[in-house]
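Example record

The entry below shows one chain as it appears in the dataset: sequence first, then structure tokens.
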Amino acid sequence: ESLAHLNTWHNTNVVLVPPGMTSVLQPCDVVWNKPLKDRGREKWNEWMANGEQEFTRSGKRKRARYQMVTEWVAAAWQDLPRDMIMASFVKCGIFGDGAQQMDLLHSSLQ
């Protein structure tokens, strides 16, 4: 009953994901999580090599400031092609024009 209420209230559809299918049915996991993390890691590596270096009293390098990390994540997200994000939902069978092409779906869904 509570799920039905949420569906109506938030205009959503609750779908049960079968065991072992999470990595196939989540667009982030299937298509763009790795490229996003790779881009973020590039920003961090650049900062480690060329960024401002501040050290603690014990001589350890201080971590990047939260604001800077947030900027890296935002830049990494902006670097992802919009088509990649849209295609990820089609590949997972979540969104499409109604005439799904089987060859576009993740192999486990075909």
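Notes for this example: Helices lie at 2-10, 22-25, 27-50, 66-79, 82-91. The CA atoms of residues 27 and 103 lie 16 Å apart.
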